[in-house]
Recover the amino acids of this structure.
């Protein structure tokens, strides 16, 4: 079955149970996991940097970032605790998780203040693609004071040339589209400068925006 024929999975715990932790975050596990890790490395991510994985899901990216980063330098925030649990037990493995001590916050309201460290780099891979503008703005607003000045935050999005009517509520399996200008304006309102990167090789055409903490 190709992507277009797949029925939309349920939202939250029921969807995770029905689809499993890999499909819930969109499948293409190895490809999209490696893509995000390689991208951050080309942007200068080093093991000594603190890295924040915004909406880390079941650790599709985390399986690459956690072993690479120094102890305690991986921070993950996610609203579905079952995804993190599956990611740690079934993907990362408990031994590596113990050795590398990643930090997690379970929150749907972007409660970044609960982390013990401030990030140098951050990524939201396929989060803004599923959020209303209000929630996306909350993410940018709450994150800025909780990361280092100069933090580079990369966020993927579905790009539209003109403003569109998105679904009324955020949903993990419905697609939301934004213009470059809409994202840049929201970022600038909350202490970020925006830099459009565009195509970064995502198999479903998601584009990349970089926000730099000013
Ligand atoms: C398409 S998945 C991507 C997960 C991960 N970034 C990856 O690339 O595998 C989107 C994730 O965003 C999470 N999410 C959606 N809304 C959220 C919110 N308000 N706060 C935290 N996580 C959220 C979902 O639970 C899901 O794990």
């Amino acid at each position: 079955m190709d992507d277009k024929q797949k029925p939309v999975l349920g939202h939250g715990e029921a969807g995770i149970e029905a689809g499993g932790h890999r499909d819930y975050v969109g499948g293409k596990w190895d490809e999209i996991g490696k893509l995000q890790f390689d991208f951050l490395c080309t942007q200068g991510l080093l093991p000594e940097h603190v890295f924040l994985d915004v909406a880390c899901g079941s650790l599709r990216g985390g399986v690459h970032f956690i072993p690479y980063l120094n102890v305690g330098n991986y921070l993950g925030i996610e609203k579905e605790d079952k995804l993190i649990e599956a990611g740690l037990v079934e993907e990362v493995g408990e031994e590596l998780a113990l050795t590398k001590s990643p930090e997690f916050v379970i929150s749907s309201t972007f409660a970044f203040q609960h982390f013990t460290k401030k990030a140098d780099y951050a990524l939201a891979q396929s989060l803004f693609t599923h959020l209303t503008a209000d929630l996306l703005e909350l993410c940018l607003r709450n994150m800025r004071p909780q990361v280092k000045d100069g933090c580079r935050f990369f966020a993927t999005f579905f790009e539209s040339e003109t403003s569109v009517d998105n679904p009324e509520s955020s949903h993990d399996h419905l697609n939301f589209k934004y213009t470059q200008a809409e994202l840049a304006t929201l970022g600038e309102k909350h202490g970020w400068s925006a830099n459009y990167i565009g195509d970064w090789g995502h198999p479903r055409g998601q584009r990349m925006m970089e926000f730099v903490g000013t």
About this structure: The chain has a mean pLDDT of 95. The beta strands are 51-54, 74-78, 103-106, 121-124, 152-159, 177-178, 192-199, 207-213. Residues 69 and 94 are 16 Å apart (CA to CA). The first helix runs from residue 12 to 24.
